[in-house]
Amino acid sequence: MKPETCPLCHSTATVFCTKPKHLFYKCSQCDGIFRPKHTYFDRDTEKQHYEQHENDVNDLGYQNFVWPIVEAIIKDFTTTHKGLDFGSGTGPVISKLLTEKDYSVVNYDLFFENIPERLLQQYDFISCCEVMEHFHHPLQEFELLHSMLFPHGKLYCKTEVYRNQSPFENWYYKNDLTHVFIYQEATLHWLQKKVPFKKLDIRDKIIVFEK
């Protein structure tokens, strides 16, 4: 197989996983693990895939799943601050839970709430829950997110970081065909320095970047 170029740092990469339907490469520089571009869904197919997700904002299981982000925002910011849920999807549960506590939050989603002017504003906090693994152009996306934060603003991300918790070919998280870029801890540190963010806090369930 020919060498692939990392979509995050544009360095060379080598084959990492060849399980059927799940060809991944690993970057020699940032340690990112990614699918080759020719395997990506087209935009219509990707949207149809997301429409199948059962993201009911009133489902307690779904609320509990996003709660680590909501809890962190409540701890770090007050209702006087302004936020954005980036990649809010078909069920914007984070903004629902925060607005119920009188926080000011708007949504943006490429497929379901595509309001470009919201990307031209700045926010005190941005949530990005189970979104960053879908980025086709991860550096470009993180630079955009950085630009939308006020100084000392925070970006709260939730994704599964690969830490060799199981052999990659058996790891459930890579089975979603729209999960095109998988992060390792070294990848996150590379991102922090490159973008750059002043701070990076890799917690048990969330990742927090500070501008």
Automatic annotation (TrEMBL):
GO terms for biological process: methylation. Pfam families: Methyltransf_23 (PF13489). The keyword Hydrolase does not apply. The keyword Nucleotide-binding does not apply. GO terms for molecular function: methyltransferase activity. Keywords: Methyltransferase, Transferase. SUPFAM superfamilies: S-adenosyl-L-methionine-dependent methyltransferases. InterPro entries: SAM-dependent_MTases_sf. This is Methyltransferase domain-containing protein. The lineage of its organism: Bacteria, Pseudomonadati, Bacteroidota, Flavobacteriia, Flavobacteriales.
